[in-house]
Amino acid sequence: MIKSRLVALFFGVMLCALSIAQSRIYNFNAFPLKDSVRLSFTVTQGASCGGWVVENSSDSVTFYQIYNNGGLCGNTTSAEIYSYTDYAPNKLSPNFYRIHIPPSDYSSVKRVDMAASFTNLLIFPQPAEDKLSIAISGQKNYYYEINIYDRYGRKKGFGSGNAVEKIYLDVSEFAEGVYVFYITTNNSGNYRGKFLKKPKAN
Predict the structure, then answer these.
(1) In 22-101, alpha helices (H)
(2) What is the pTM assigned to this prediction?
(3) Using 50, 70 and 90 to split pLDDT, how confident is the model at 22?
(4) Three-state DSSP class for 128?
(5) Structural domain spans, the chain
(6) How many Cα atoms occupy the beta-carbon half-sphere of 27 within 13 Å?
(7) Among the four given CATH numbers 3.30.460.10, 3.30.470.30, 2.60.40.1220, 1.10.275.10, the one describing domain 118-197
(8) DSSP characters for 157-194?
(9) Whole-number Å distance between alpha carbons of 138 and 135
(10) Chain center to CA of 136
């Protein structure tokens, strides 16, 4: 009798732990609009929760709260859909979003890039070994700032200066891999692109 009760208690604890560990947040999506990002997600059927929080990061590591819905969320009879629009996303670096239901329920992380498409850029050589040149279509004699990130969203470089026709970068110290960069110019131009860094020749 005692043994059967212990087994039942063990399985009850395990089911409870699994229930706690499983996130109630699903179908989380982030859609870039013209100057904003639309977020939507669903909370599974269950007990009410004490609100939800939208968090944003530029490197996928350190997140900051940008919105707090302090009301109750969740429904005991059906799943519920929620949404939020970020009207001030970062246009010069990646935007990583996640939803947090306190105290410890987190959604997956979604990335959104708001800068202009790299179709207006000529990036060469590809892959790059030591030097990289970037030409912006229709742009001459401009001031620029450039931020470079690795595939995980970690900032790896920054540069600024005056370009006549091209931006020249020294990438000789970069590790092998794919990098994304964001350029802003003094005429309010915002651009993003990527390049492949190959290992140095022996």
Answers:
(1) none
(2) 0.58
(3) confident
(4) strand
(5) 24-112, 118-197
(6) 10
(7) 2.60.40.1220
(8) EEEEEEESSEEEEE-TTSPSEEEEEEEEETTS-EEEEE
(9) 9
(10) 25
SS3 10: helix
DSSP 8-state assignment for residue 78:
S
Torsion of CA 140, 146, 148, 153, to 10 degrees: -120
DSSP state letter for 198: P
In whole angstroms, what separates CA 60 from the centre of its chain?
Answer: 6
Q: What distance in Å separates the CA atoms of residue 183 and residue 133, rounded to the nearest whole number?
A: 13
| Residues 144/150/153/157 CA torsion (nearest 10 deg) | -40
CB atoms inside a 10 Å sphere around CB 134: 21
Q: Tell which CATH classification among 1.10.260.40, 2.60.40.2060, 1.10.3720.10, 2.60.120.10 matches the domain 24-112.
A: 2.60.40.2060
Q: Residue 194 in contact with residue 181, Cβ under 8 Å?
A: yes
Percent of the chain at pLDDT above 70? 85
* 118-197 has the same fold as 24-112: yes
Element (H, E) at 175: none
> pLDDT tens for residues 123-169?
998 889 999 999 998 888 999 999 998 877 788 999 999 999 999 99
